[in-house]
Every structure is written in structure tokens, then in C-alpha cells.
## 1
Amino acid sequence: MTKEHDPHYQDVLKISRIAAHLEAIQSLLGWDQETYMPPSAIEFRSQQHEIIASQIHKHQTSHDFQQALSNLIDLATGQIKIPSLSNAGKAAAREWRRDYLKNTKLPLSFVEKFAKATSISQHVWMQAKQHNDFQSFAPHLKNCIELCKEKANYLGYEEHPYDALLDLYEPGMKTSIISPIFSKLKIALKELIKEICAKKNPSYPFLLREFPAVQQLEFSKNILQAFGFSNEYSRLDQSAHPFCSALNPLDIRMTTRIVNGYPLSNIFSVIHEAGHGIYEAQLSIHEYGSPLGSAISLGIHESQSRFWETFIGKSHAFWRHFFPILNKKFPQSLSDVDLNNFYCAINEVRPSLIRVEADEVTYCLHVILRFEIEIGLVEGSIQVEDLPEVWNEKMIDLLGISPLSDAVGCLQDIHWSMGAIGYFPTYALGNIYAAQIFQAFEEHHSNWEERVGMGEFLFIREWLQTHLHQYGREFTPCEIIKKITDNHLDSTPYIKYLRDKFTPIYNL
Amino acid sequence: MTKEHDPHYQDVLKISRIAAHLEAIQSLLGWDQETYMPPSAIEFRSQQHEIIASQIHKHQTSHDFQQALSNLIDLATGQIKIPSLSNAGKAAAREWRRDYLKNTKLPLSFVEKFAKATSISQHVWMQAKQHNDFQSFAPHLKNCIELCKEKANYLGYEEHPYDALLDLYEPGMKTSIISPIFSKLKIALKELIKEICAKKNPSYPFLLREFPAVQQLEFSKNILQAFGFSNEYSRLDQSAHPFCSALNPLDIRMTTRIVNGYPLSNIFSVIHEAGHGIYEAQLSIHEYGSPLGSAISLGIHESQSRFWETFIGKSHAFWRHFFPILNKKFPQSLSDVDLNNFYCAINEVRPSLIRVEADEVTYCLHVILRFEIEIGLVEGSIQVEDLPEVWNEKMIDLLGISPLSDAVGCLQDIHWSMGAIGYFPTYALGNIYAAQIFQAFEEHHSNWEERVGMGEFLFIREWLQTHLHQYGREFTPCEIIKKITDNHLDSTPYIKYLRDKFTPIYNL
């Protein structure tokens, strides 16, 4: 059933599959916690999490696993030991080795120190954000940065310590690849924003009318159904922060947040999480538990959610099909609104302080700001004490606005308090990948707008499966982009897409 | 925080608590499967179950656990090694040893053989029941009986092989204790049924009217609230078969089944599961993971659910409070029904073929029938081939009716196909215990009907906590009954309760 039949390969897979099942259990613990768990249970839940996490780690680093994997590949050099392995089998061995080294390079004492420090730091961050008190958080952040540098040293790197951290989330990605791509994107986005902000920006008060929760949820389910989701293998629930939790390709759980007076939150959350869900649902079930049945990286995952949310979900074609349905669901709030008006409303560009609420044009600048700061913190060219000032200056430079308080400025995200330095770039990479993938998709399906306008979506799923999902982690992010687009990682398609899209909207 | 402070005790507790957390995770897997899991996920779910079960077993039988426990108690003889342990600490050590021996006496090869055989047998049973084909199931049942006998030999027993099986579900219980108690109960119940069946039995067609699901669920939540449940630590969902799944005292999950045309199913399921839930919620959180924080046995657990469902929930006093509320929820279906009529309806006695739907008077006879057959099968005095005939004869003898097909006769329950011989008696024991506990409760709270009639329930919870729940497994079932009632296990209180209750209802 698997692409690779070698018995040694099957031995590795067997152990790896147990770890995958344990990870699925971990996902269930997380999903349950955010959806249905009674609040009092939180302390016991965190202990359950700890136990499962330690079980997963034990399996991934066990002597049995090491022995089995050593039959496939030399753990020290990465040399494949069984030349008859298929290309897919070899790729799986390489990825297993990558994971194994990642899981074993950090001494237990360091892992514990890191976990303890970031647990405290998260707690302090929450308080600091609440009280707009950066100073109380600063020493903890400083400590987190030091620990991340230490981590980078344990993990090892060729060019830049930040690469070691990046690699945790985006295998094979390097600062030297990202930097010029982000720089180019930054210049283009700043220019585009300047042009847009020079235009008159109408407001869309109809989006603040009444949109009852029941109908909102029905509409979300209409979308999921059109995307090919069935209740047989997926579900949609509500949670404070939308997410997609995939236990395996046959158990995909998405959540949304319903705000009565702001329907876009639910709609685009659902489309976004559906993008993640489609990726997970289309991973090979036969390869479950191996790298060949896993998602490539955070960035590629994000490319899938953004592909659906923005390239498809915020397209005019999408709403040619769905606006009449939406209108019918909320006649009291939308009867005086027409398709074009709605299309402009969902594509409103307006520089804002908060990343998670940003539009397509400004979004990546929020990420680039964080990337530049992270590099500075790791290199030592930015001091933690100066962070609020640096943040606010960069906000002015990139978006032309500045936060009135650190709470909505440099304290807005949880990531740094968790020691997740190197994570942010994946959000921008997701958009850049998505634009490149979308360009390739458009070449294959030049009539996509016609089909989407008629409510057809399955051909998009199929195209993504054929060109991306079916491979699991057979290729690295850069390799798969090359394979799909015949080009290297490049922000040009994203810049072109944005300019093409927003020129008519804003009459540029 | 725990009753016992000895450091060796704490060492055992530490390991035992990890197993408890893993068991909580196992409960979550089960709860999720019955409530929200997408159907396609079932195969992967069973693999997740297997992995967690094996992790639990590993912890419970680990060398570390054995070593730690050996410091408290001699595993071979049961001699306590630390005389300074409190009585609670000694009891915990004894129960840990009981569990440890139970978990280690069966060779792995046997456990695997048993699991495989019963897995197949369950599958065959399901088909056999569907097609009313006992013959296809017979060889598998035969095999299950043989395996159970083999299991009994591994586990060991003093008097009767059935004792070893009983002990798995009801620690310390023996055939020689149960037999005379069941015999006495059987005679009394048969006599009571004869008297009731001689009377005119009116029907209650109003129970088959429309009872919309939303209001049914609301009413259930009214009951749970009155019983002291809050959403902080508990929840109610729907499932095909009602159950209570307690991850820990701060995470109690009950389910119910809503049938539009039959409201009693939901009402008494909820009260029954609430009884289980109150027990679990009132176990000591400080003793979590030790026998002192666990439920005593299946029978005692069932005594709690039956206590609430029948002794409280089917009492006239209960409905003096709740009938007006129910009436208000369903005015279109109940406005022409009065309290007394409703009270008689919920206490209708009518011999039926199916155990799970049986009334209070006939219920135990269904169990006694199975107990007698199980003893016969284990002793060899009943042959599997003769089972349908034996079953039908016993049904006629005990209940005066006989099934038209084996599907609703000897094939109705899943238990035997799972190799769960020795389980059934706990259902009847639950009722017998409940009556004894209820008698003691009545002595303390002679005005309970007055208070329940006014919607007071918390004093019942408190009484149960003081006299039963707080002890965990400090006492065996027989010991706790002695402690609460100052009497041995005895069916007299149950017989008296039934006669006292049904004499006025049926004008005997």
C-alpha cells in the first residue's frame, strides 16, 4: 500500500506510526480543550498534555527507532544505506533523519529549562499585555532570546544562527534566502499601500449589521460542502480562536468564531481553516505516520490556507457564486448591498495595528517587521529594552501608523513569550508560496474564474492534490515550489497578483 | 494534601497518577467517539485506543511501579511493610497490590489471544444478532467461555472459578455470597410480579406524544442543575447509548438519548448518568490516581446511578417538584395529565424481553437469569448449544414471557461476546446495594421526601459523599455496605422497598 515496500522501511514506519497516533491523541486533547472541555479541567488537561508529549518524544527518540532508521540511512552523514529504495523512500528516510536529529540534539536538561522559562514567560507576557507593562516582560523576553540562541547552537547551522530556528518550522529555509525576498516585497508593498492610501477609501457600515449566529454557521457549512467536505470525515465547531486540527486524513476538525455584528470573521476563518483542512484531508492515508503522509512545513501549510482564503475566497468569481446565497441568508442586512460593493468591502485595504486582522496588502509587512526585529535580537543589533521604540518606528516606516500602547504594539503576539523565534516568517512565506502556486494553477486552469463563479471547487482540490498534497514531505518547501512552478522562491508573483487585483478596486 | 504522607507512598502515587491521566485520555477517546468524532475516523480511533491501553498497562506493570509498591507491601503475601501507614494508606497499598496482581497474572500471550478472540466474537455476534442466527455465534461463545475459564485459572480462586471473574468487576465478591441473596430476591420478585400482573394495568398513551428535543434537553439540564452540576466541571451531550465518562472529578461528561415520542428515555438516562457523575465528581481530587480517589467497583457505581434514577428519580416526592416544571415545558402534551397519573406511568411494571428497558421490579430477574446461565456455562452444567432453549425456559419461569427470536433473547447483550463473564451480577448488586444505602439514608433524613418535594437535592449528595464517596476504595464493596448500614449484603431492604412502593401503586 505504501510507495516503499522495503522491509527495513516498514520497520521504521511501524514505530513512526505509533508516534503519529500519539500526536493525533495530542491533537484531540487540544481540540477538546478549545471546544467542549469543562473549564475546571484545565489543570489536569495540561498534565495529560505533558504525559502525551513525553510519550511522543520517547517514541521519536527511542533506541528501537534509532536502530531501525539506521538501517535505512547513516544518521551521522545522511548517506542512504539501501540503494534500492525508491526516491520517495529515500526522501522519507532523509526527513525521518532530520526529525530524529532535531529531537535528539537538545539535551533533556536544556529542553526542561526552555519549557520552564517559556511557561513562566508566557504567564508574565499575558499580565504585561493586560497592563500595558513592557518593562515587566523585558527580562523574560531577554532570557527567551538567550535560550533561543543557545538552542540554535545545539541545533547547529551553516550561515546564521537564525537559520537553525527557522529550520524548526520551515525545513531547509535560510535567512539568506528570505532576506532579499522580503526586502523586495517590502518595497513593493509600501509603494502599493501609498498609492491605495492616496485614494478615497469608502467605509462599509453594512458589515456591522445583525448577522444571527445560526445562519452564519449554516453559511459556513454551505462553503465547506461546496469545497467537498463531508460530515463523514470532518466537522465544524466554534472556539475563541479559529483553528484546524487534523487527527488524520479521516478526522479533520475545523473551528470558527461567530461574531453577530461582523460576519467576515466567520466567513474567512472558515475558508482559511478549510484550506488547512483540505491539505490534511488529501495527504496519503497509506503513508500515514511517515514523512510521505505529512505536511511539508508551516509555511506550505499556510500557503494552502491563504490560497483558499484570499486567492479563491476573496476573488470576485467566488462571490459571484456565493453572494446570492449569502444575501438570501441575511436579507434584512444585505438586501441593499450589491456584489461589487460587497467585493470591495471584503478587499478593503487599511493599515492597522494588529497582524491577525490585516488585509492582503498590509499583512506581510506586519510579518516582515517581526522578522527584521527577530534577526536584530538574535544578532544583538537590537536590544530588548529598545523594543517598543524600534517597533513603533518600524510601524511608522512600514504602515504609516503607530500604536498608542505596547499592548497593541510589541506585546500583541504570544509567539516570543513562547520562545518561538523563527516562526513568524512562515506567515509571509505562506502568502509568497501561495501566489507562486496560484500562478501555476492559473496556467493549468485559465478558466478557473468561470468555474468558481458557477460554484465548482473540486477541480481546485484535485489540482492541489496532484501537484502538492500527494507528495507529503517528499520534497522540501523550496524543492516543491521549484517542482510546481519551475521557479525558485520569489515574491514577484505575489506582488503582481496584488497589483493586478487592487488596481481596479482602488482605481490606481 | 493526601491522607497518607509517607514518602514511599508518594512514590507509588506518582507513577499511579500517570496511569490515571492515561486512563483519562482513554476516556476522552471513548467519549469523543460516541459524541463528536466523524464516522470515518473509527479505524484510526481503535488504533489510538490500542496504543493508550498498552501505555496504561505498561505503567501499571512497570518495574518502577513494582519496586515502589514493594516498599509498601509484600506483593507475594500482602503483608504491609510500613506499620506507620494510616489505615487509608494501608488500604490503598492493598488495592494497588490487588490491581497489580490482576494486571500481571495474565501472560501477554493469553491477553493477546483473548483480545483477538473476543474481537472476532463481537463481530460475529453483531452479525448473528442482526440475522437471528445463534448457530453462527455458538462456536465463538464456546471459545469465549473456555478462555474465561482459562482466565479464571490464571487469576486464581478459592472456592469457585466464577469468583475469579466476578472479582474483576466486584472486588472480593464471591458466588457463595451472591447465590443465596439472588435466590431470595428471585422468589420475592416472582411473587410480587404475580400479584401485580393479576391487577389491571392501564396504559399511558400520553407518553407517546410529541416532546421536542430542545425542550427535552432543557429539562435534563434543569435536573442536572438541581443536582448541583455546573458547567464549570461537567457537560451533557447526546449519544446513541447514554453513558457517563469521568476524566477526573473536574471533568464529568454525561450523555443522553433524546427520542421525540418517548420522553422517559431521556429523563431517566440523565438521572441515571447523573448518579454515576455525582459519584465521580465527589471522589477526592487530592487522592487522584490512587485507590483512595477511585470508585470501589462496578456494582457500587451502579448503586449510585440506581439510587438517583429509581429511589430518588422515580419517587413521588421527586415529581412533586419536577412535574410542574415538566408540564410547563410540554403544555401541548401534558396539560391533561396529573401528577399521580404521571407517577404511575413512570412506575409501570410490565415483564418485557429486554433488560435495558425493564422496570424496577422485573429488572433484577433479567440479571439473575444471566447469572444462573453464566454459572452453568462455567461449571459445564449448561452447554452453549442449549443456550436458546435454556434462555427461553428461564424467561418463562422468571417473567412469564418468552422471546420470539434469539435476537431479542439470548443474543440481546454484547457482554458475552466480549468475554465479560462475571459482569452481569454487578447490575443486580447495584440495586441491592442501593436499597441498603437508601435505607441508611432514610434513617438519617427521615424528612427527605419533604425536602426533595421542594427541589432540594444537595443534602443527598452531601450524605453520599460523607458516607461513601469520600473513601474511594478504602473499603471493599462488602465492607462499605457494612460500614454504612451496619449490616451484611442483603436483598431484604430491596424487597421491602419494592413491596412498599408498588403496593399502593397497584393496590395490592
## 2
Amino acid sequence: MAVNLPAPVAADLHPVPGVRIGVTEAGIRKAQRKDLTVVLIEPGASVSAVFTRNRFCAAPVQVCREHLASGSAVRALVINTGNANAGTGADGLQRARSTCEAVASRLGLRAQEVWPFSTGVIMEPLPVERIVAGLDAAIAAAREDRWFDAALGIMTTDTVPKAFSARAQIGGKTVTITGISKGAGMIRPNMATMLGFIATDACVDPSVMQQLCRELADGSFNCVTVDGDTSTNDSLVLIATNRAGHVPVQALDSADGKALRAALLGVARQLAHAIVRDGEGATKFITIQVEGGRTVDECRLVASAIAHSPLVKTAFFASDPNLGRILAAVGYAGIEDLDQALIELHLDDVHVATRGGRHPAYQESDGQRVMKQSEITVRVGLGRGTQAATVWTCDLSHDYVSINADYRS
Amino acid sequence: MAVNLPAPVAADLHPVPGVRIGVTEAGIRKAQRKDLTVVLIEPGASVSAVFTRNRFCAAPVQVCREHLASGSAVRALVINTGNANAGTGADGLQRARSTCEAVASRLGLRAQEVWPFSTGVIMEPLPVERIVAGLDAAIAAAREDRWFDAALGIMTTDTVPKAFSARAQIGGKTVTITGISKGAGMIRPNMATMLGFIATDACVDPSVMQQLCRELADGSFNCVTVDGDTSTNDSLVLIATNRAGHVPVQALDSADGKALRAALLGVARQLAHAIVRDGEGATKFITIQVEGGRTVDECRLVASAIAHSPLVKTAFFASDPNLGRILAAVGYAGIEDLDQALIELHLDDVHVATRGGRHPAYQESDGQRVMKQSEITVRVGLGRGTQAATVWTCDLSHDYVSINADYRS
């Protein structure tokens, strides 16, 4: 059902030297399902992360933040699906810490060197005992070429595993980038429910890792939305194993820094787009470009209003060029001094509205033609500046309601 | 399909002396459907209004604002359904003005004394010629006891006409209040797509009319949401015909002012609740009370986040006590320094979460019992102050998608 999103081929996912992955069936919520993943990181890697801005963040996010703040090395990630360990109070925090301790004791690490991640149902106690019981098998299975299994092992309502690889030339060496992500509901900027893990063997100075991770999130996962719900558990982790043998990237605006950032952003965007393409019930992939704004922020405000409007999203689902709904969303996005007489609207190549009203040459049949496509670009001109922003989203279908009405059944 | 919303009985709607209503079938969008309403207001009335905050407001809203600003008396309202005259640019403005002129010429008024209202599809040219052709019949039919017809004549996707009456004792006289409204999609605070018209024969000094109308909107229509889309056309009009023969209300904090405000607010809330009960696809009526906030605004922010969450709304539709979704919405509502360890959650009488986690005594069967009801109260305690706010909403069902995917078909 995902929109133009083929499943990855395991052989196309390049191993990243310094990262091994083990996946097992721990029976966390359902039997016979890969639901527990460990990522083992060799010493010497640089790791950074950004997390949900939801104030009701999950226990594992709180623990990750603590471990990040401790300045410890990061040597293992432990990821479960089936239970988000969110809305679980002090008990949930204890369970997340127990999970880290169990991993650490098996690997001879300190608990702070282990980061926990959970996704799934909120407000249910995390079955730590099942996770601990599965750890030995997951660790024993760890290999460098298990990215496809990891993509499977972190899915919730995703219908397609999400994994992409790329290569780039950095400092005269060929570096590898491989990442996985999962959606697929509770998705909106800042950030999606969404777990994203991207690894590279490139050499990156620890001092620029956090900025690099933030820029990747801002250019990819923070630009997608499915339903406007910001999850409690969103996390994006960037691992640089420093194995490629080139001089470490010390500045993101150097030639190597730019090249690495671009290559990483390419993978991050593929992962983020995949979340939208596999958005719950999605039948269409919509790109919303807002230009002519005074600031990037106001362009994002407008793009997000369009992307979140249930009326716009159901019109896309119906292939109905009821495009006034887009204009209405532009109007309520929150730009107080917006002049509606300057608004332009294109749907792909079709000029729908000019100066705030229907374009004289616009024919409904033209709008209908574009609306029937599975990939559509909405372009809005605000006529008040030179800034722009892009958001990617999907439509709102019957299946979205079915999936979310039945999710726990 | 509306939730506990019986159709009004025409005989229960009290005429308001000084207001006559005529409704006709003008064939604006569909044949054999009441779609054109005129409200004729005798001289000496006080009229005020509040309008959508959508910056892309419809042509009739712009014309109403001009006529309101002109300080002219208001002697007639002309309301059509089937076409919103929004997203129609300069041509749409001209068509709204032509409509006013046509009404004015038939009644011996100036155009500024006529206020136009439109609801229906956006970005289609308003068929002024059909409206004008229907005016004579509508005006000729005008009588004081036609409120029920008016409620029918302003419907779009509403399934039930919305009209309520009340009486109150003001200044030793019995005054009458009668109002009508329409929804039922594109509904959110500030304001719903939503037309609301409330008339009373009470005597109100013009100097307090605008404040009175604003307070009515803030206490009713601005507290309801169906899908979070703020319409281009929202309008609430308050008419006081000054016929009741008591000393005019000069201050809203006087005894008479408070009594009148309370009686008007009672009708306004019934009209606003009716919009939610008849929300597109609604199967449940949800009251969201947020308390323990530092400010009313932050309580409304949280209540609105819960009310707008597609995940929360689909859980209500499914009667699924997946209540962590409510906690997630609390977390992303936008209170930066929220302490999740202080959050309490009740579902009717069931204590679901305490100190940010599942309540030890909470049983899923208790949550399930409440979720199956057609009327549910969600109560969230923020634990950081003494302020509170309430928002009313409905669930998100398959029928919402169907209605909005098929609206123009």
C-alpha cells in the first residue's frame, strides 16, 4: 500500500565497518516477530542524536538524554518495538535503565554506554524480562550485514522496511552510509515517531557531530508529516565509526564537510520520505513548496498548515481538485499580515489561483488530471519575500482511520 | 448520525419581535433545496458580529467587515448556502457587493445596510444571478416564525438543522432569544465554518454590543473543534431588536447585563455544541477539560492539541482506551516547561494516569467502559496552577473521510 516505495534489497545495504547488528524475536508484544535489535558499536566511534520535542517524552528518551549528557562513549543501542515505554512514569524510567544494565553486563560496558529506544503502544509497562531474555540471542547474532533485519525489527504499523545506503568520496576515501527508519503514524515535524539510525564509517570530529545530526534532522525528518501528532519517542541517531582512514572532518563548511553532509542528507531524506510514502493509509505522496515568504519559518508554517489540514488531505485521497481548501489553510496558518490578494497556487504545472482568486485559464479538468497522480507537488507563492520551505506529506484515507481505530486490537 | 442531537421543533422556536425571515429555493448549487435566506431587521436594532481570523477570508466576510466599519445600521442579512464565495479574488468581492445592492434596491435600503453571508464550496464563482432571481420570493415569504426554515436554509453537510430558543427576565420583562447555526466541517476555534445568527428582543446599548458578541463567541463557538480547519467564512451575528420595553443594558457587569449574557451564552453554547454533535462523521461528543494550568491560554492549548489529534480522535471512534495518545498530545501541545511527572488524567470518573504514568488501580476494562459511551469527558490536570479551559470536540470516523472525499461529487 505504500506509495512508490519498494522494499529494500538486503544485498544493496552496505555494511558500515565498526557497526554490528543483531536482531531476534523476543515476544515483546506478538509472537514470531523480529522485535528486539541491538546495535554494537566498536570503540572509537562518534555518536550524536536528536530527540522528540514532546514534553511527555518516553522513558528511553529521558535515559538517552542522560547518557548523552554524561559524555560517555556510546557502545551499544538496544531497540524494541511493540511497546513505547511512554506515559509510564518513574516505573518506566527504571525499566529503561534495567534494560541498559542488562545489555552492559553482557558486553562488559557501563550502563551509560548503552542507549535504549522503544516504539509501539504507549502507557503499557515495558516487558523488561522478555527483552533481557532475548538479549543473548540478539548479541550472538550480531553481524555487519544485518541492516535489513534491523529495518524489519524496528517496524510498528510500517508495511515496508525502510533502509537506504549510499557511498561518497571524502578525503580521498570512499565512505559508506547506511540508515534505517520506521514510521508510520504519529508523524509530524519535530519529529516523527520515528526512529532513525544512520551510520557511516567516515571520520568526523566529535565537536561537529551534534550540529551535523541536528542539520540532518532539520533537512529531512523535521520536514515530513503524516498526521500532525508529535510522538513521545522520536529519536535520530548518527554514528560515525571513524574507520575510513581519511583526515577527520572538522568543519561542516569545509569541502569534505559539505560533501559528507550532502551524502548523509540524501540518505536521511530517503528515510524520511519513506516514512511518508508508508504513512498510515497513504495513497499519495505530496510535496508542499511554499515560496515568496519573508522568513523560512513562515513558509514552514504555511506548508505545515496545508500538510496537516484534514480537508486538504481527504481531497487528495479523493483526487478531488477542491483546491480552495488549500487557500483556506494558507489563510489560517498564522501569518497575521498576509495579503490574500498576492497568493499564487500551482498544482504541478497547473496554475490554479492567481492574486488570491481562481486563475482565469484554470480548468477543473487540469486540476483533476494532477490530483489523480500518485505524486503531486503543491506550490504556494506568498508574494512577500524571497524565502522558501518544503514539507512532505501524504493523504488521509479510510485506511488511516481503520489502522488507528484497530491498532491495538 | 448526529450524536444525541434531535432536530428542533419549529413550534418551539420563539419569534423575535423585529426580525422576519424568508427562505427560498434559488437553485444555487442543487435543485429543490432551501438555499437562500434573508433576515429582515426592523429599524432601531443593534447588531454586532465577529468573523473568521482566517487571513484568506471570504469575499462576503470582507464586505461585512466594511459595512460594519461604516457604522451604518444593519437592516438585512442575505445568506446563501452551496457556494462560499471564498478564494474568488476581486471578482468575488464584486459579486458579494452586487448581492447586497440587489437586496438593498428591493427594500429601499443602502447597500451598506445589508450584510452578505455565504457557505459551501470554495473557489467557485458565486452565481449572483440565481441569488438575485430568488430574492423577491425570499423577501415576500418573510415572517417572524420562520427560524426553522432558516436553520434548514443555511445547512451544508449538516445532517440536522440547528436552532434553539430561550427566554429570560431582563429589566422586569420577559425577553426572547432565538438562534441558528450551521457546521459541520472545517470547524475549529477562531472560528468554525460556521455561520451563527442569534437574535433577541432585549434592549442593549450599542456601546456594549461588540463586547457582548465577542464574549459569546469566546465562550461557545471558539471552544469547539471538529477537524482543526479554520474556515474562510465563519461569522457570528448578534441582533438585539430593542423591542422588549425595558431599560437598555448599558454594562455587561450589571445584574441585567449578567443575566442577558448568561441567557445568550446558553443559546450560543447549544448552537456550538450542536455543530460538534453533528460534526462530519461524528459518533461521539467529547468534552475536554484541562485544569491546573498557569493561564487559561495554556489550558486551551493543551485541550486543543488533544481535540485535534487524529490519533486521539480515531481511538474515540474505535472505543479503544489507547489513552497514552492523550498524554502524547499533552506533551506536544506547546508548554515548554511542562513537568510530565505532575500530569493527571481522568476519563469521566476513571483515574487513568497519575504523576505522568498509569494509575496503579487503573483497569483497562474501566477505560473501555467509558470509551463505549456516546458522551465522554476527558479531564487533564497539569499540576502547575489554578486556571482551566474546556473544549468540545468529536471523534474521527470513516464517515469523516467519506464525507470530505465526496463533498463535491
